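Problem: given the chain below (233 residues), write out its structure.
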Amino acid sequence: MLVARTAPATALVALHRVSFRFDDGVTLFDSLDLTFDRTPTAIVGRNGVGKSVLAHLIAGGLAPTAGAIDRHASIAFVAQHDAGATHDPRCTATAVAHLDAPLAALERIARGDAREDDVGTLDGRWDLAERWRAALDDAGLPIDAGTPAHALSGGQHARVAMIGALLSGAELLVVDEPTNHLDLESVRAFEAALADFPGAIVAVSHDAAFIDALALTHSMRWTGEGWRFEPSA
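Solution.
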């Protein structure tokens, strides 16, 4: 049995009878009904139950095999693994942060040769370049916009991706095991930054201290019979 909340009027993401099957034919989810609103939520469960796949489905990184997903919010997603982008020689730190398009739009506007959609791409973030530079400096990251992604360590890659998500202006932030590549000092800095994030947060994490620090008050927990939404222990 799959246990889910009834979709509230304020749902940011709603999964309707969603199924997901891998290319080898193995079914991970079958007729899954779940909703996510502004409640700070941790997705928890043993390895192999599909936590990361669920995060990708919520954020739009994967498409369901069957069913539908309604999204009523802008979403920023920080995935656990992004090796493809990291090893692309054309990929820079700004691309890891998914800020390459708005920063390029800002530069064109400043030069006076803006494209038709540049203002929309920027979405009101006129101080984005300054905030991006300040965030990198605050994180102690000795990089600039042109730093190639393959030059970043695992921890630097994770921190750059998180900085980009926090600067995205998204209404919902989905993060998948965000503390995996971070040392303790970086985890604490990340927790402090997330505490100021004005939107909703859904986090896949096995780190109980991280869940407590972020005040993720509820869990979407795999029980062996299905996903159950409940107050965090």
